[in-house]
């Protein structure tokens, strides 16, 4: 989320036509097209954040700026050239890094929260805890995970929450 994504397409000589067919999971399809005989580009129902990275007659690469979860879906590039027709398909999955917070609850027990991540984050504890995380699914496809530290021993003072996620791992420590 928030980064730029670049999708390449087969680059061939003597291109007649290039078409990006985009089918997002949310919203309607869109197309970006280029016809070499007219040196003309066309776009249908595509947001302004999707465009050719360079001039399509030089390079058929697609760039998505400020990627959002709404950009998830299938992206197919079709190239028509004198050598034949060429296709390349991508299934774009957008990662949303969760926001990690660690605090002490009203009873003095550590609680760790991984807010609004996609896919769902995993939470573990040092020292080990036998807590069962709770998950809250949001309408935009993100998930918040809440874990309360439950100690095997009453002598635990310093605890560390470890968040594991495809967008990056994080950890925080606390004394309650």
UniProtKB/TrEMBL annotation:
Signal peptide: none
GO MF annotation list: signaling receptor activity
InterPro entries: CD200R (IPR040012), Ig-like_dom (IPR007110), Ig-like_dom_sf (IPR036179), Ig-like_fold (IPR013783), Ig_sub (IPR003599), Ig_V-set (IPR013106)
GO biological-process terms attached to the record: regulation of neuroinflammatory response
Main location as per UniProt: membrane
Boundaries of every Ig-like domain copy: 1-93, 100-176
Pfam families, per the entry: V-set
Membrane topology: Single-pass membrane protein
Keywords: Disulfide bond, Glycoprotein, Membrane, Transmembrane, Transmembrane helix
Keyword Nuclease attached: no
GO cellular-component term (any): external side of plasma membrane
Keyword Transmembrane helix: yes
Subcellular location(s) of the protein: Membrane
Family membership: Belongs to the CD200R family.
PANTHER family: CELL SURFACE GLYCOPROTEIN CD200 RECEPTOR 2, CELL SURFACE GLYCOPROTEIN OX2 RECEPTOR PRECURSOR
Protein name, entry field: MOR1B protein
Organism: Bucco capensis (collared puffbird)
Lineage of source species: Eukaryota, Metazoa, Chordata, Craniata, Vertebrata
Gene name per UniProt: Cd200r1b
């Amino acid at each position: 989320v928030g980064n730029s994504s670049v999708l390449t397409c087969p680059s061939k000589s003597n291109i007649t036509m290039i078409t990006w067919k985009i089918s997002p999971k949310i919203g309607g399809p869109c197309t970006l097209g280029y016809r070499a005989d007219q040196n003309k580009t066309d776009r249908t129902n595509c947001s302004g954040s999707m465009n050719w990275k360079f001039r399509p007659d030089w390079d058929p690469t697609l760039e998505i700026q400020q990627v959002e979860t709404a950009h998830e879906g299938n992206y197919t590039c079709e190239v028509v050239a004198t050598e034949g027709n060429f296709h390349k398909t991508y299934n774009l999955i957008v990662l949303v890094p969760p926001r990690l917070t660690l605090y002490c609850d009203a009873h003095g027990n550590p609680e760790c929260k991984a807010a609004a991540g996609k896919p769902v984050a995993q939470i573990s504890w040092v020292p080990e805890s036998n807590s069962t995380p709770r998950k809250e699914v949001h309408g935009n496809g993100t998930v918040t995970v809440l874990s309360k530290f439950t100690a095997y021993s009453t002598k635990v003072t310093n605890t560390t929450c470890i968040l594991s996620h495809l967008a990056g791992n994080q950890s925080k420590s606390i004394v309650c």
